[in-house]
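User: I'm putting together notes for a lab meeting next week and I want to include a structural view of one of the chains we've been expressing. I don't have a solved structure, so I'd like a prediction I can at least talk through. The sequence is below, exactly as it appears in our construct file.
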Amino acid sequence: MISLPHQKYQIGQCIVNCHDMTISKGALKLTLPAKVFEFLKLLVLHAGETVTKETAIEQVWLGNIEVGKRGTGNAIWQLRKTISELGEEPEAYFKTITKVGYQLLVTPKAVEAPSQSLSQETQPISSTQKPLIKAIVFAVFLLILMLGGYQFYPFTSEVKQEVLVTPERITNFEGVEEQAAISPDGRFMAFQWRRDQKKAQIYIKDLSDDTAPLRQVSMSEDKETSPTWSPDGQALAYFRFNSSGECELHVRELITNQDRLLDTGCMSRGYLNSLDWSPDGQSLAYAKSLSDRVAVFSYELHSNKITQLTMPQIGEEDLLVSWSADSKKLAVVRAVELSARVLIHSLVDDTALEVISGESMIISLEWEHENNLLYFNALREGNFVIERYSFATQSVQDFHRDDTISSLVINDTTQSLYYSRHISQEHITLRSLADGRILRQLASSSRDMFGQQFVSTGELLFLSNRSGSWELWLKQRNGSKQLTAKQGLVGVPAASPVDDRYALPLKPVGADHYMLYVGSLSANQLNVVPQALGDIRNPSFSLDGRKIYYSSNVEGKWGIYQYEVDTQKVKRIVEEGGKYAVEDNLGGLYYSKDNTPGLFYQPKVGNEVLVTEELAVGDWGSFFYQEQALYFLKRSDSQDILVRLDSQWQPEIVFSLPAVSIRGGRSLAKAADGALVVSMLGINDADIYRISLEDSHRL
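Assistant: Thanks for the context. Below is the predicted structure for the 699-residue chain, given as structure tokens.
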């Protein structure tokens, strides 16, 4: 056990109590698991220094390397989560030194013993005291060993024993390696690689020979994604995004190098694997965009017949798909905003059975054929965890946890699972509207995104999973405050430009659709707007704060609606397919459409006008109106560009950032004093790892 010379320490605004293993702030007190608290004491003992992972494993986990490797990651995660729950910013307390260790950034101050005033603080632990403390700890340890009578175990009763998995890194290239696909014989891996500010291309790696060079499959300069092998291993199907951004379904014969275009209008978002080749070799299943939804289609290779297989409702997206071993069923992930479920679609009788529901997000799916199991990547306690679903028991089991897991694939030959692990973290920045320089940054160990600023106070409204699930938070000057707590699924909020009100789409627990709520920070209230009907999304306030615009699905049609706060009246403004809208100073609306690139304008009087085609579908909410100009996000192969359109819609580049720096979705928002709020991706790098299917975690 790591010893400290005092029972209590103040770190920042929090009190660490060694007697009962708690951290407290004011009346709020949280208890830590024994090993996590030992790890915290080690950081306190070496405040301001880098505590290496090796040191932590030796002193906290008693040299048990396998347990310690996982334990250090879990411990720092839990410490950051605890600090967040106490209303503090974890990035102000802890710093991760990549691949090295961790630092406590604040200086601990010993609190006087109980017989003295607890408010009186002693001096911080000095560098001259630390060697003496270490010597005392070591001497006591030797004395116990010499006296005998004690037996030491690598586990304490507070620590769960685990069957640990050490992932094997398969790729380690500069850039992002994603969407692995394994050949039927298990020898080759096709994958997408994006590097050097270039578009993603498809490569093949020989898994049996590490010295063999990569083979580049891509022959174009276009972005190519979602490779999937034919059952005979002689061909790859993949998506290609041509120069106009349209998705094309292709098949390339690997021996003859012949390439065929099969269909257009396919859909792939981020690193979701939206294409799979049936085990019988007869069909390709893939996601295809419709005007107001995304469905799964099949392409029959012998007849060239294209058939729609799944029938999602308006606004639903079937973007992940995986075949059963007999090619008669498909596992499909159906998602709406931050809500996802898994359906098994039968091609025999055209029925769909829901097997998994209630997930906030699923970003990968794979049907393991030998044991008839589904593997999928879902959000658990703020982190992505690979889950395993058994058809036999109809239950879900945690399988593997790692940092920022993305796409996964099964190697049936070797009974292995491959997945991509990203080094990226969404965070929020307040930037100058003149040159893009950072004025303020909100970064934590969690995922923080979609920030909105209250102009009157400068506080930031944002979504975060720092509490373990997606909730609404407020960044204040002295910390962060959680505004929602397990009330249901939350959507992207909007902050009023004139006061402390905010609009929030919220799907309450047990409800079947999102409703519009309006909250007030000063009144600490969040009330539903009963006049707003349908399935509510993407609110925004008018410039005077007296109207709220939102998109909704009413009677099977998505459109943009206006809610007048004073009169409580609702009317439809945009008739067809509107996704997100902002008001200009003339009372007109700039808006995007679902699955349609570009920005449109609906004047107060007159007809719809296409303003620009340069806003990508995935950036549907990344635009705002400020100081009589429209700003939007434009992407190129090498840059993320903020473009300003004047009153005549003439473009001007405001500033640019490296490509894929800014998150997709609604990642730009206006702010006060010549600034804007930007949701950033941070470092963007990913490698592919392998683990055995025979191993599992009890997390």
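A couple of points you could mention at the meeting. The longest strand covers residues 351-359. The CA atoms of residues 201 and 224 lie 5 Å apart.

User: Perfect, that's what I needed.
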